[in-house]
Design brief:
There is one protein chain. The chain is of the alpha+beta class and 819 residues long. It has a 7-stranded mixed β-sheet, with helices on both faces. Strands 3, 4, 5, 6, 7 and 10 form a 6-stranded antiparallel β-sheet that branches. Helix 1 crosses helix 4 and helix 20 crosses helix 21. The protein is elongated, with a radius of gyration of 39 Å.
């Protein structure tokens, strides 16, 4: 939220400097994100009036002006040469007198004005545009000042340029501070400075006319106030003081009526809307949207968008159509324009839950929706109508202006439940002694009504405070008003000891470094994902939905990291990345009824840590020593093996919703499945518009706890005997896997002599080859034999090899090649 300091001090002016005020707001929980001067430093710029403006004798685009600068032109009017197209007699403009300094340029140095000649004509100063004074980017001509501007007055004083813009970064619980008066109320409570009341002079009705309003949805709208105003001039010019204040709040001037509505919102925090009365058919009805035969109602908004509403979106409708999106934005059909003469002014209380998230469904946000989502004071809608009516009469009114009485439909206002504050509990939570008198003073300064008993203060939250619901909310109010800087520096009572990680476990950062060492780059993605990713890539048809998503597509919690990595790949491919290798380590979220609530868990929701990687493109960076080829399943399989080393993973053919059915494996460690590795399914390559001619992306996703566990190194003596190696070739069917053959050999009864078995060759014969049946292949395997106690003889080695061959023949039907 942005506002000028001068507007704040108009309601509460504590004896503090700008820096002290900013520090006070920050320390009270309303962080001042930025302090910015309204105008850069410059001196010697005064209000002046052009008396005459004549054509320059030697230049078509220049004029020679005589200028009255008041006390600054003691010897008569000054002669100024000016090239602005709007330089003309009778207007008042800023004049940089001789010796004045304009704002610093790109070099950081101020520009000093002196006497000079332009095309042979002397010029005694410079007439300035808003851009030259760095007040705006408008360079269309001289900055024209109001006709009542006093000639000779310093321009900084006349335009109140010695002001500071405050930009607050407010948390969602501070909805009551989303207005200048709301912040002033907080400053008054923090400093004890008096708070001036808002102008609330009632406007006497001169008409008996009212507009019928029906509230059909009390869970949408709790209060609806409005008034008819007739005979106004919508072409009236917004006063300069209002334009300046709106501009310093970051809001440009649109028209008088829109400016008045925005001004009251920034001033009081109450959004309002002004309808063109003559465009309303019959009366107004406040209700939820309707869906008829599968079709929702349509509404063209003021921003030009046409949207479709359903039963979850609140609207204001007349007898013919929907006219406004409740609490968010008005409709184009009843918008005010230059031809408008009669209006209906509305101020309402919309329930925060009924407004929250609705604008994000349509990919835009508004100041009104931002405030209603956090809670707007429902007690003063009538006063805000009176304030707007008064400003309309002042700015757009005339002899024909007349207004009707305010209609006020109170349907369902929030019930403020009393909250008890125990003084002893407050002292314990805050960490320093506080008395009941101190707590009472804080609550009084904040405008919180309460009743006191021995050690307990029972507070009834005011209508503007939606954030006070539990005792801790009141404790927070107590310490932030007393001052966080008053907290004592107390050492922890409990000893602080580091938690030592067991030797059999490595940290997650070590795992990140291991994946990065395999040439993957880390990415960090939202845990909120598109529902399509969950359905298609994770096979999750019932994902955990968000009640209030930050964006319409990001509506569910992810149960897999694969969708995020596929999106990262798409993002890189749109930027013509030739090779992508990325990974992410993060939590996923899935339903699990066995999970109970604890310090690190929520009932019914499992949140395991996963690590996932994706490789696409060339297997190696471009180089001369290796022939370029696309990454394949076995490259990523080797990366997975490296991550689990020195333990050995087993890869079992399996299926996964995101992966190719014939090129996917389940990764098992010690007999427990820890994840999957495989190529992305061709269906999803096409659905997600990935290139078809450059190889398929290969992915893996693994459980992190399994990768963090590692075997503690154990001492093993260096063998004293020489190992013996024997090569064998066995013929097996194509259906017999490599893992089964090796496992059978190692399980053979060799008396512990067989230490390892490694495949080093595969031979698939041509059809009809001698010694082979159809569908058979030959596996060449090197066996390593070792006896720690005695040298191996040929007889013992042959016996061990025979036992291994017998085992593989018995278990898998294999036979020795050539036998």
């Amino acid at each position: 939220m942005q506002f000028p300091e001068s507007w704040l001090r108009a309601y509460c002016n504590p004896d503090l400097t700008t820096a002290q005020l900013a520090d006070l707001l920050t320390m009270s929980g309303m962080e001042v994100e930025e302090l910015q001067p309204v105008a850069p430093p410059f001196t010697g710029i005064v209000v002046a009036e052009i008396l005459t403006a004549e054509q320059h004798p030697n230049a078509d685009r220049l004029r020679v002006c005589t200028v009255d600068a008041g006390p600054h032109s003691k010897d008569g009017p000054l002669q100024i040469v000016c090239g602005a197209p709007n330089a003309r007699a009778g207007i008042k403009i800023p004049l940089a007198t001789v010796g004045a300094e304009l704002p610093p340029g790109e070099d950081g140095k101020p520009f000093k004005i002196g006497k000079g000649k332009l095309r042979g004509v002397e010029s005694q100063g410079m007439l300035c545009s808003a851009r030259e004074l760095k007040l705006s980017e408008d360079h269309g001509g001289l900055l024209e000042l109001p006709a009542d501007a006093p000639v000779g007055q310093d321009i900084r004083q006349f335009l109140s340029l010695d002001d500071t813009l405050f930009t607050l970064k407010l948390t969602p619980n501070l909805g009551h501070a989303l207005s200048v008066y709301g912040v002033a109320r907080e400053v008054a409570a923090l400093t004890g400075a008096p708070l001036k009341p808002l102008p609330t002079t009632p406007v006497v009705p001169t008409l008996d006319e009212t507009l019928p309003v029906t509230v059909d949805a009390p869970d949408l709208c709790g209060r609806f106030s409005g008034r008819i105003v007739r005979g106004i001039d919508t072409k009236a010019k917004t006063p300069a003081w209002m334009v300046d204040r709106l501009a310093r709040c970051g809001q440009r001037s649109v028209s008088a009526l829109v400016d008045i509505s925005n001004y009251v919102m920034f001033e009081t925090g109450q959004p309002t809307h002004i309808f063109d009365l003559d465009k309303i058919h019959g009366g107004l009805t406040v209700r939820w949207g309707r869906v008829v035969e599968g079709q929702g109602e349509t509404l063209k908004l003021l921003n030009g968008n046409t949207i479709t509403v359903d039963a979850q979106v609140g609207v204001i409708a007349d007898t013919q159509a929907v006219e406004s999106l409740a609490g968010i934005m008005g409709g184009d059909a009843t918008s005010v324009g230059d031809d408008t003469t009669n209006v209906y002014v509305e101020a309402a209380f919309w329930w925060p839950d009924a407004v929250a998230g609705r604008s994000r469904r349509y990919n835009f946000s508004t100041d009104a929706g931002h405030r209603y989502e956090r809670g707007v004071d429902p007690a003063h809608t009538v006063e805000r109508i009176e304030r707007i009516t008064s400003l309309i009469q002042q700015i757009c009114g005339g002899e024909a202006t007349a207004c009707g009485p305010v209609t006020d439909a109170i349907v369902n206002l929030p019930a403020k439940k009393p909250v008890a504050l125990r003084v002893a509990r407050a002292a314990k939570v805050i960490g320093m002694p506080v008395t009941q008198a101190q707590c009472s003073e804080v609550l009084t300064r904040l405008g919180l009504s309460f009743t006191a008993s021995d050690g307990v203060l029972t507070v009834t939250p005011p209508s503007w405070r939606f954030d006070i619901e539990i005792e801790e909310d009141l404790i927070e109010e107590v310490i932030r008003v007393i001052g966080f800087d008053q907290l004592p520096l107390t050492a922890p009572v409990a000893p602080v000891t580091a938690r030592v990680r067991p030797e059999a476990q490595r940290g997650s950062y070590a795992l990140r470094r291991s994946v990065a060492a395999l040439d993957y780059q880390e990415t960090i993605n939202f845990s909120f994902v598109e529902e399509r990713w969950e359905t298609e890539l994770a096979g999750n048809t019932q994902p955990i939905r968000l009640l209030n998503p930050i964006a319409a597509p990001l509506s569910v919690m992810r149960s897999s990291l694969i969708g995020s990595l596929v999106q990262v790949l798409r993002h890189n491919l749109t930027r013509r990345a030739p090779r992508v290798r990325v990974f992410e380590l993060g939590r996923v979220f899935r339903r699990d009824a066995s999970v109970q609530t604890s310090e690190q868990s929520v009932v019914g929701i499992d949140q395991p840590l996963r690590v996932a990687g994706l490789a696409w493109g060339a297997a190696e960076p471009v180089q001369w020593g290796v022939k370029e080829r696309s990454v394949d399943f076995f490259d990523v399989k080797a990366d997975v093996e490296a991550l689990v080393a020195p333990r050995t993973a087993r890869f079992v053919a399996a299926e996964h919703p995101a992966m190719h059915p014939g090129r996917c494996a389940r990764v098992e460690l010690d007999g427990v499945a820890i994840g999957f590795v495989g190529e992305l399914h061709p269906r999803w390559r096409q659905a997600y518009e990935l290139p078809a001619g450059q190889g398929a992306p290969v992915l893996f996703e693994l459980d992190v706890p399994a990768l963090l566990a590692r075997d503690v190194p154990a001492y093993q003596a260096v063998p004293r005997q020489q190992a013996v190696t024997r090569d064998i070739a066995v013929i097996v069917g194509e259906a017999v896997g490599h893992d089964a053959v090796i496992a059978s050999l190692l399980a053979a009864s060799t008396g512990g002599l067989l230490r390892s078995a490694k495949l080093f060759d595969v031979y698939r014969p041509a059809a009809g080859a001698a010694g082979f049946e159809p569908g058979e292949r030959s596996l060449a395997i090197r066996l390593e034999l070792l006896d720690d106690d005695a040298p191996l003889t040929d007889a013992r080695s042959d016996e061990a090899v025979k036992a291994a061959l017998d085992a593989v023949q018995r278990d898998l039907g294999a036979r020795l090649r050539g036998a």
